[in-house]
Specification:
The protein folds into three domains: 256 residues, 3-Layer(aba) Sandwich (Rossmann fold); 104 residues, Anticodon-binding domain of a subclass of class I aminoacyl-tRNA synthetases (Four Helix Bundle (Hemerythrin (Met), subunit A), Up-down Bundle); 79 residues, no CATH class. Helices cover 49% and strands 13% of the residues. A hairpin with a 5-residue loop joins strand 14 and strand 15. The N and C termini lie far apart (57 Å). About 6% of the residues have low confidence.
Length: 504
């Protein structure tokens, strides 16, 4: 039986959805003001795999993942670029779709935008006010935290601990100060309009919703007042998910989500990868911009991510990507041999192999039933690969070879792996690797047929300027400098530890 680690209870619990063979799952999506980074990729892949495994187990899954398309960060980005906020939203929703497509992440069944559900949010806020869970002040509306007796049970923190905030540097500690609040922990459900910002009419005057209310309103509209799985990164436990529980259960009096599932962080030098810390790599950069030790494809990145259990932290490095590529190479080398089997093997060897193939599904399911333990599932695949290679050394019948290939493709699909034919795997990797190096090495000089020569002093100055641009998150200027250096045959390699290596 499938068991899931429930953040709310702190225990692994048997999975029993509210409706037999049907699962409602809501996962908090991205705020669309910039490209997604590897931390977003991990969350996307984790819940993509969870969805795939539930479907493998014959559940009918209704998967909802939202876009936050109105937010302070979006407004700030629009002001910085002097563009309409709606243009920023459309650009980065399109970029999200591009990134997820590259990762092999299937679109959710519904991908609602916050601005599409303002009426539902207003109705939910009015309901909370009527039940005395919320109060209005000068056009703003706040949730009355002390009214909800279970506040803090998801994050396992008491009120005084929540007021003190989370440990220094840990994401999620966002308790906004406001002297008008009746309790410092009270959080905004509705924000009064400010000059130049997008706004909507409401009973409290023009304004826009707070961050937390959107997920409650959208999930309850699309999945009902109670549903099965609510997911996201660990940084969302407090305050976002804590606040979702308070406002949703305060309004309905019903259990909001049955299972709370949170994936661990991606770390660089033992620190969580995040935009706020400036130590992140976007999905676009990983696939296109940077020169890694091996060609990075969707399966390489997915293999890197699923080789660690979803709740554990994962360290990103060149070495980790290289190891993921090598691990996949081992599988695809075996697949290539299976496509050219010798027909000399018979009886005993094939019978032994068939026994291993017959045992594998139960071993795979035992791993995945243990809180979606993809790490153990990959280990089972590696052990089966070793058994197959032992048979291949002596020869394998065509029927057995076909059975092996079908098994790896079937169970690999649950993880988003092993879906290429061996020749395509080899050629795709080489093609991406060559295109990546050609793009950076030739840059604009090849296109313009102009040879640019830069002195060492100029190169050093440009590298220093680019590092500062990256620290200031001026990605446009950083890209301009990279292209300028590429035109002179200077290749930059950004390393996960934050350094930049220069190659001529």
């Amino acid at each position: 039986m499938l068991k899931i680690a429930n953040t709310l209870t702190g225990k692994k619990e048997p999975f029993r959805p509210a409706r037999a063979r049907r699962v409602g799952m809501y996962v908090c999506g991205v705020t669309v003001y910039d490209r997604c980074h590897l931390g977003h990729a991990r969350s996307a892949v984790v819940f993509d795999v969870i969805r795939r495994y539930l479907e493998y187990k014959k559940y009918r899954v209704r998967y909802v993942k939202n876009f936050t398309d109105v937010d302070d960060k979006i407004i700030a980005r629009a002001a910085k670029e002097n563009r309409p906020w709606t243009e920023i939203v459309e650009r980065y929703i399109a970029a999200y779709g591009e990134d997820m497509g590259r990762l092999g992440v299937r679109a959710a069944d519904r991908e609602p935008r916050a601005t599409e559900h303002i009426p539902e949010m207003i109705r939910l806020i009015r309901r909370l006010i009527r039940k005395d869970f919320a109060y209005a002040v000068d056009g703003d509306v706040y949730y009355r935290v002390e009214k909800f007796k279970g506040y803090g049970r998801l994050s396992k923190r008491k009120a005084d601990e929540l007021l003190a905030g989370l440990p220094a540097g840990q994401a999620g500690a966002r308790v906004e100060p406001d002297e008008r609040k009746k309790n410092p922990l009270d959080f905004a459900l509705w924000k009064a309009a400010k000059p130049g910002e997008p706004s909507w009419e409401s009973p409290w005057g023009p304004g826009r919703p707070g961050w937390h209310i959107e997920c409650s309103a959208m999930s309850m509209k699309l999945l009902g007042n109670s549903f099965d799985i609510h997911g996201g990164g660990m940084d969302l436990i407090f305050p976002h998910h804590e606040n979702e529980i308070a406002q949703s259960e305060g309004a309905t009096g019903k259990r909001f989500a049955r299972y709370w599932v949170h994936n661990g962080f991606v770390n660089v030098n033992q620190e969580k990868m995040s935009k706020s810390l400036g130590n992140f790599f976007t999905i676009q950069e990983i696939f296109e911009k940077s020169v890694w030790p091996e060609a990075v494809t969707a399966e390489v990145l997915r293999y890197f991510l699923v080789a660690t259990h979803y709740r554990s932290p994962i360290d990103f490095s060149d070495e980790a990507l290289k190891a993921a590529k090598a691990g996949l190479d081992n599988f695809y080398t075996m697949f290539q041999k299976l496509e050219e089997p010798t027909a000399t093997a018979s009886g005993p060897l094939d019978r032994k192999l068939r026994a291993a193939l017959k045992a594998f599904p139960k071993r795979f399911e035992a791993a995945m039933d243990d809180d979606f333990n993809t790490s153990e599932a990959v280990s089972e695949m590696q052990q089966l690969r070793a058994a197959v290679n032992a048979v291949l050394a002596r020869g394998i019948s065509r029927s057995s070879a076909q059975a092996v290939m079908e098994l790896f493709r079937k169970y690999g699909a649950v993880l988003g792996l092993f879906q290429l034919d061996p020749e395509s795997w080899k050629m795709k990797g080489e093609k991406i690797y060559l295109e990546l190096h050609d793009e950076i090495a030739l840059g604009v000089s090849e296109k313009a047929r102009v040879k640019v020569v830069l002195s060492d002093e100029k190169v050093n100055a440009l590298v220093a300027e680019r590092l500062e641009a990256r620290r200031q998150k001026d990605w446009a200027r950083a890209d301009e400098i990279r292209k300028e250096l590429a035109a002179a045959g200077i290749i930059l390699e950004d390393r996960p530890d934050g350094t930049t290596r220069v190659r001529r």
